[in-house]
Each structure stands twice: as structure tokens, then as C-alpha cells.
């Protein structure tokens, strides 16, 4: 961290303690952005959101939000990986800014809140400060990060990881989607290959408000989550290569069944989770493409993905090593060859206690109940935490906090709660 964080004295803290964000304006912005990339979800019959990173739909979303940012008087800059920084000047404008950020790209089957609450909440903080003529000592910047979800280009937190210097710019620009289109090409195509150098200059501090995406807060009727940190995430892509064969004419002993090998790996991952030997590990095989995918042919090829989560870095390393060993066992057992590629890997992040305390204090001052919570999902805050003190605020969601689904829903009140905490915390940091 490039500069120590200094918390203001008790006297100077209360300049916005009487100010609240505009709940309806925040809600309307979320709804309006949620119309872009809307699709009808077959499974739920609901309208969901599909704004994969750097697609035309994502650009529509960016144009809408950036227009609002400009109307709010912010000056906009774009960095080399397409992250957007919208700046509200401070009284001492040369000081490093307090940054508020998140993302507006989405998974293929999204709701209206994931990421969008953080960005539009940042905008609502700015609008509220404008309404009340509040001038902060430090500038405040609202950031939109590129490809947080990692669904299109395969690496999550791509933009914030490049901004923070964990991921190299060239590697990120050369990353391609399933059709071979690169991040760099899409940035050029859409005019988002910006000038601001990466890694970016460290902000003073970073805050992000996000929906919880889990059931914990709502279960206890808790209004605010004070996020302790983000668990480690590893993504792997496995290519399993066997041999296609006739389902009736090929004896069992002569098969090299890629589908069987994939099933063994999936079952093993489940056993590893249930064994308890890897701490609080979670494992998911989310994608599995089988070829030729026909009823009477032994599968020759499977592409499968593995998503591993763990709050404990050592347990994650152990799980990855043991999985690799098991892949060798499966090769010997089935005659299928397996190549494994790590497509994303982020270490666990613990947010500074001072930032957790600031969020907790802001919630308490507003009369909101809060609970400490570790994030199960990755977030841009986990990357920017490498540059400056970072903190996160969670708000509860309905339906067990379901997310990455059109049913994803946080109430207007819950959203405003989180952004009111964000407002108080951001202004305290900025002063
Ligand atoms: Zn998100």
C-alpha cells in the first residue's frame, strides 16, 4: 500500500450524517439499466439480463451509465483495458481519490443487481453530494471495470486485475472468447482502448457495495454485510480426449470413453468437498461439452470446467495438487488423455480491519443491523485491494440470495441501505 490511511477525528466526521440517498432515483436507474440486454428466460419465464463483456449490449449499458455520469458533472477517463473512471473533483484535487467501483457486464442469465448496484450506487452517491452541495476534500471516482464476470473471455475480474497489476495488459488484450475474438480487438472496435496507463495510480481507498449473492444476511434479517474478505478462486479447463466408438459394436474393455472420465472427475470433486479435508472448499463443474454428443456413440472428447473456491489458500493448493494426481489416475483407468489449464486463479483477500470498522460504524450510525461475512464470490474489490485499502458492503437478496439468475432481487430499501452506508463511508474517507 502506497500511503497510510488516516481516519478523521470525531468532530469532522458528521458532515453528511443527516443526508440520505434518493431511494427512488437509485431504483429507477437499476431498472433502466436492467432493460438493456434484456432477454426472456426459458426456465423461469422472467425477463433476465444478458450483457456479456464488450458486446453491443454491454456497450449500450456503458453509454447509458456514462451519459448519466456526464450529466452529474463527472469527468470521464478510460484506461488501456477499458475500465472507466468518472471523477468528481475534490477541494484538494491533487490528492489521490476515494474510488467507488464495480461492474455492469453480466453473465448470460443475470438479474439487474450484480455489479450494477455498485456502479449505480456510486453514481447515486455523487448525485446526492451534488444535490446537497457537499464538497469533499479528496476527489471521488466511480469506476466501471471491464469483464468482471469472466464469462465471455474466461478470466474473471479481468479489468480490475489489469488495473491493479496482477494480470499483464498484453496477456489480457490477447485473451479470446469462444469465437476467437480478442479483448484487444473488441476494445478497439468499441472505442474503449483508453489512454490511462495500467496499472493505475493507487487510489486513496476503495469501496464497493454489492448484493450478497447468498442466503446468510436475509436468514437473520440483517440489513448490512461487513465483508471480511474474498475467498480464493481457481478456474480450470479440462480437455479430455478419448476415442469415438460404436455403442453396440465396441466391447467395454476397448473403449476410451471421455464421458466416463468426465463423470469420474465430477464425482471425485464432490467427494473431496464432502471429505472435509480441504477446509470449506466448494467445487463446481459448470460447463461440460461432449462430442459428438449422440446417443449411440462413445464420446471422444469432453471439455469441462472446474470452479474451486476456498477461504484457505493452503487448502486450495492441496486440493489443486490432489486433483492433478487424480487426473493421472483417471487417464490410467480409462485410457483417456487429459490436459488441464488454469484459466483464472485469485488468492484469498482479507480487507483491512480499519475498512471493515468504517463500514460497520457507518451502518451503526444509520441504525442498521450488520453482520460480518466472507464473500463467496469474487469481486473487483479483491483486486483493487492490492493497490489501496479496500472495503465492501453487502446487501441481502430475496429467494436465498439467488444470483446469476433472473430471479435475483434485492428490495429498493435494501439497495438504498447499502448505498447510504457507502455514502457515509466514502465521504468520511474523502474528508
Ligand atoms: Zn458482481
Please describe what this structure looks like.
The chain is of the alpha+beta class and 431 residues long. It folds into two domains: 304 residues, Zn peptidases (Aminopeptidase), CATH 3.40.630.10; 114 residues, 2-Layer Sandwich (Alpha-Beta Plaits). It is 34% helix and 22% strand. The protein contains twelve helices and 18 strands. Strand 3 and strand 4 form a beta hairpin. Zinc ion binds next to loops.
CATH class of the largest domain: Alpha Beta
Helix- and strand-based class? alpha+beta
CATH fold node name of the largest domain: Aminopeptidase
| Distance between the ends | 19 Å
Number of domains: 2
Q: What string gives the helices and strands in order? A: HEEHEEEHEHHHEHEEEHEEEEHEEHEHEH
Question: Overall mean pLDDT score?
Answer: 95
Spell out which ligands are present: zinc ion
Count up the helices.
Answer: 12
- How much of the sequence is in beta strands? 15-25%
Reported CATH architecture of the largest domain? 3-Layer(aba) Sandwich
Low-pLDDT runs of 5+ residues are: 8-14
| Biggest β-sheet strands, sense, barrel | 9 strands, mixed
- Percentage of residues assigned to helices: 25-40%
Shape: elongated
- The total count of strands amounts to 18
CATH superfamily of the largest domain: Zn peptidases
Q: What's the Cα radius of gyration? A: 23 Å
